[in-house]
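dude i think i finally got it to work??
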Amino acid sequence: PETDTLIGAKIDKIDKIDAYSKSEDDALFLLKADKTELIEAYSKKETDA
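look at this
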């Protein structure tokens, strides 16, 4: 039973780490998308001018 508890705790920790790194990735992805949109909007202004 004690090993079951340990395994459960380990799985829980892994899940938390996965969830954390996923949210990190999502944040980075959003930042990148934001930057791309800004660059596109800027270069569009340049060509319009």
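The CA atoms of residues 43 and 49 lie 10 Å apart.
im so relieved honestly
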